[in-house]
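Pinned message: reference record for SOUL heme-binding protein
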Amino acid sequence: MCDEVRCTHHQSVVESFFLNEEEKKMKMEKYSSLLFICFLCVIVFCNGIETPQFTVIHTESDFEVRLYRESSWMSAPVREMSFEKATKLGFHRLYQYIRGANLNSSELMMTAPVLTSINPKTRESEYIVRYYVPMEFHGVAPRPSTDLNLQFVKWISHCVAVRKFSGFAADNNLNKEVESLVNSLGKLQLGDSVALNKHQYSIAQYNASTHTVGRLNEVWMDVGSAFIKEGCRSNH
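Predicted structure (tokens):
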């Protein structure tokens, strides 16, 4: 009888132990899930900044290749030798558009990144500054006021090689970052599809000018059909 009682008591203690461990496990899983949700909230929802959608299809130590989905952009061509001046002038016109200088008088939300591209026809004598149009306006974006000289452009799904760098994107550091990406791509021996487009690049900026710490910039370069097996196409 005593043995039976002791056995029952022992079983009860063991069950209680595992129950407590199971409860702890459930609590930890719940806590981890909450942390993950909070993390998503910080980088996606709470931040409130919409960005183009993409999938990373190739990763190296100093760059990655992204497959971007179809996207829409409002573009401001700027004839200017300086990248910094061109970006400021172009974004000023785009900001007016965002704030309601369009035929609908609609205010659009700010998105990221602000993309400054070398015009492939004129290279360094002209830039194109682009604003990513939010998904809700991809079908029909509000028409800009004619005096702003903006063009609405739709991009097909395509692939770009991306190199990240910190600090401020400026005239005195862009060539170094672009050359680093070109050299890295050259090591992969991707063929002429990259070599032919090495002077056609874009600089993506994700932070406002008042954001001085932890800035994120990227060099984008179209890799054409170099990753055709992964579904890539050229955007040019």
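Pinned by admin. Summary line: The chain has a mean pLDDT of 79.
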